[in-house]
Design a protein that fits this description.
By secondary structure, the protein is an alpha/beta fold. It contains 14 helices and eleven strands. The model has no long low-confidence stretch (mean pLDDT 95). The protein binds D-xylonic acid. GO terms for molecular function: carbohydrate binding.
Length: 337
C-alpha cells in the first residue's frame, strides 16, 4: 500500500514546477531579465540601468541578459510593482514613495526634511535600518536590492513663484500616489492631486495640473522646463529610488546568480549616486538657461512650511510606528555628525 503512494508522490514532486526550477548554488543559466523604470533613457535612472545591464552581462559571461525598458514602457511604478509580485516582470527601479501601499514602513522615507545632505541619506539607507525597511518587502513578494538616489525634491509650477507659504494657495499640484505627499501639500494650501509619473508631462502640458515636485535632474531629463515656468528651490524631502526584484523569480535563482545581480546593483548604485550629484550640481544653471525663473525660499519661510507640515510627519509616525520612526531619526542624527 505504501509503495505506490510514495512512487506517486515522488513522481509528482519531480514534475512540480518547484522541482523543475531547482538549480545548483553555483549554476548560472541563460535568463532574460526585464528591468523597467519610469524616466527617459537619457536620465540618471536610464544611465544607471544601462550600466547595471552591462555589469550583469560581464559577470555572467552574457548568460544573464538584462533588457532595460525606460519611460514607463512596462507601466507606471505601481503597475510594475504588481507585475513583479505576480512574476510577470523580473526587475525594476522606482520610487520608495510608490511602494507605501504595499509596505507601509517605506513611508518613513517620505518624512519631510528628514535628511539635510545626500551623504547623510546614504549612511542611513545603506545602514541597518535601511536594510530593515527593505527586508519588509519580502513578505509582499518583492526583494529589495539597493537604494539609488532620486534626490532632493523641488517645486515647479506655472502660477507664481513660491516665496511664502501663502503662495501655494490654489495651485493644482501633482503629487506621487502617496498619502504623506498628498497630505503635506494639502496642508500647504495647494490643491494636491495624485498622479502616476508616466502621466505627468501630459498633465502639465495640457494644464490639467499647474505644477509638480521632483529633483532638478528629473525636471531636466523629463523636459519639464518646456511646460513649467517657475522653479522654487525647496529641497523639501530626499527621495530614494529602490531596485526591486520579483521574489517569485528570485527564489528560483542560484546563489551565484543572486550574487551577480546584487553586486551589479551595488556598482550601478555607486555610479548612479555620483552621476546624479554631478548632474544636480549643474542642472540649476541649465534650467535657468532653458528659461525657468528660479527662486530660493527665505529660511524663516521654510521654517513656517516645516511647522505647517507637522501633521504630515505625525501621519508618518502613525503609519510606520514610533519605534521605527525614532530609529531612523537617531541614525539620521548620528550620520549628520
Ligand atoms: C519615476 C518616478 C519618479 C518620482 C515621481 O517612475 O513619481 O515623481 O520622483 O522618479 O519614480
Amino acid at each position: 500500500m505504501k509503495r505506490p503512494l510514495l512512487a506517486i508522490l515522488t513522481a509528482a514532486m519531480l514534475c512540480s514546477p518547484l522541482a523543475a526550477v531547482s538549480v545548483h548554488a553555483d549554476e548560472v543559466r541563460s535568463r532574460m531579465i526585464r528591468f523597467g523604470y519610469g524616466l527617459n533613457e537619457n536620465s540618471n535612472q536610464g544611465r544607471a540601468a544601462k550600466l547595471f545591464a552591462e555589469e550583469v552581462a560581464k559577470a555572467s559571461d552574457g548568460k544573464l541578459k538584462v533588457r532595460t525598458f525606460g519611460a514607463a514602457s512596462l507601466g507606471s511604478d505601481d503597475q510594475m510593482q504588481s507585475a513583479l509580485i505576480g512574476g510577470a516582470q523580473e526587475m525594476m527601479v522606482g520610487s520608495t514613495a510608490t511602494l507605501v501601499g504595499i509596505t507601509k514602513e517605506m513611508a518613513v522615507w517620505d518624512t519631510p526634511f528628514l535628511f539635510s545632505s545626500a551623504e547623510q541619506a546614504d549612511a542611513v539607507l545603506d545602514g541597518p535600518v535601511g536594510r530593515q525597511v527593505m527586508d519588509k518587502l519580502e513578505e509582499k513578494g518583492l526583494v529589495g536590492l539597493v537604494y539609488w538616489e532620486n534626490g532632493f525634491r523641488n517645486l515647479t509650477n506655472n502660477t507664481r513663484p513660491i516665496t511664502r507659504l501663502e503662495d501655494f494657495s490654489g495651485v493644482k499640484l501633482r503629487v506621487m500616489p502617496n498619502p504623506v505627499f498628498l497630505d503635506t501639500f494639502k496642508l500647504m494650501g495647494a490643491n494636491a492631486v495624485p498622479l502616476p509619473f508616466s502621466e505627468l508631462f501630459t498633465a502639465l502640458e495640457t494644464k490639467a495640473v499647474d505644477g509638480q515636485e521632483n529633483p532638478f535632474n528629473t525636471i531636466l531629463s523629463s523636459k519639464f522646463y518646456e511646460v513649467q515656468k517657475y522653479l522654487t528651490v525647496t529641497n523639501h524631502v530626499y527621495s530614494p529610488w529602490i531596485v526591486t526584484v520579483s521574489k517569485r523569480w528570485w527564489d528560483g535563482l542560484s546563489q551565484t546568480e543572486q550574487n551577480i545581480l546584487m553586486e551589479a546593483a551595488k556598482k550601478a548604485r555607486d555610479f548612479e549616486r555620483q552621476d546624479t550629484r554631478e548632474e544636480a550640481a549643474r542642472a540649476l544653471a541649465e534650467l535657468k538657461d532653458k528659461g525657468m525663473q528660479i527662486n530660493e525660499v527665505d529660511p524663516a519661510e521654510v521654517q513656517r512650511m516645516r511647522e505647517q507640515a507637522a501633521p504630515a510627519i505625525q501621519k508618518v509616525v502613525d503609519t510606520v510606528g514610533q519605534q521605527l520612526f525614532d530609529q531612523v531619526q537617531a541614525e539620521a542624527e548620528k550620520a549628520a555628525l
